[in-house]
Amino acid sequence: MTASDIIVLDNGGTSIRIGHIRQGIFSEAFETLKSTRLCVDDAREELLRIINDYTVRHTLNLQAAVLGIPAVLDRRNDVIEHCNNIPQLEGKGLKQFLTDNLGCLVLFEQDIMLQLLGEWQAGAGRGKSSVFGVYFGTGIGAAYLLNGDPENPLVQDIQAGHIPIMSEGKLCKCGNRDCIEAYACGHTLTELAATTGCPIERLFEYKEQPAWKAVLHEELEKFILYQAYMLATVSTMFTPELIVIGGGVTAMSGYPQGKLIAKTVEHLQKPYPASTLTFAWASLGKQAPLYGALALLNLEASRSH
Ligand SMILES: [Zn+2]
Asked: 162 CA distance to ligand 1 centroid (A)?
């Protein structure tokens, strides 16, 4: 039987989600591991074990392994840099190591770009020539996809979550102070839940309720406004055709999606880009990296012809 299956590891920094495409059919369930599994001295071998174990249990005949990696990728030199959550994956030669040991095609993509590619292939960004993706999750991830080419060197490694915004001196996970991420990501909500005693998953639901309004309303209004500032900033600088917004925070119960967009538009210059920019919510959920993997494989095939 010819090898026609694809394993996809979406490594988001906090967790690794693994799914597959078997003879063109997408897996419905995903396995989730903690990314800290790879924070070990023999990270490469551990990654290989994870892939092999999944492949055997699901009786996959691998044509390709596609990995989303939360880092800066130097594709030509097979080097991974700035993998802040899993520094053990940094360095040279991981792709070659996996290719040699798996005996199939191995493709890497920056984790946010892999999701955005999926949206471009089959979701909210379908057919758009310029799509800026912003994912508000544990941190803030961003990627800019121009003409469906994730390797365009002009738009690599856009660290839009680290645009400085405030002057309060709050420390960001990156080591700098006052990045937008320090004020408007999942970590911010974790802190707010801890200081107020509100269950984190209820923050936006309880925001206007009498018992909670005094401690939640103002903080969460600022939180949304900072997120809008970030969207307005990248829109002003990159003037994309479409902004795709995703991530766990914006999918929380009661999250005011309409307000985020209204506040963003309020801070855009008129008439442009206010009238040209469009917004869409990431629509593929967990399956986005699978579609992203298909897009990458298509690109790879078109290059080798
Ligand atoms: Zn930062």
From this structure: 4
Superfamily of domain 5-110: ATPase, nucleotide binding domain (3.30.420.40)
Contacts of 150-159 with C-beta under 8 Å, sequence gap 24+, read: 150/109, 150/110, 150/113, 150/117, 150/296, 150/299, 151/75, 156/72, 157/72, 157/82, 157/110, 158/234
Ligand 1 centre to CA of 176 (Å) is 5
CATH superfamily for domain 124-281: ATPase, nucleotide binding domain (3.30.420.40)
Q: Distance from the CA of 10 to the center of ligand 1, in angstroms?
A: 22
pTM of the predicted structure, to 2 decimals? 0.94
What percent helix, strand, coil does the chain show, rounded to 5? Answer: 45, 25, 35
pLDDT band at 2 (very low <50, low <70, confident <90, very high): confident
Report the separation in Å between the CA atom of 81 and the middle of ligand 1, taken as the mean of its atom positions: 16
**Contact in structure between 250 and 141 (CB atoms under 8 Å):** no
144 Cα–ligand 1 center, Å: 18
Query: What is the CA(159)–ligand 1 centre distance, in A?
Result: 8
pLDDT, one tens digit per residue, over 183-210 is: 999 999 999 999 999 999 999 999 999 9
For residue 5, the CA-to-ligand 1 centroid distance in Å is: 38
Can you give the residue ranges of every domain in the chain? 5-110, 124-281
- 5-110 and 124-281 share one fold: yes
Q: What burial class does residue 285 get, using C-beta atoms within 10 Å of its C-beta: 0-12 exposed, 13-18 middle, 19+ buried?
A: exposed
Mean pLDDT of the chain: 95
C-alpha 177 to ligand 1 mean position (Å): 7
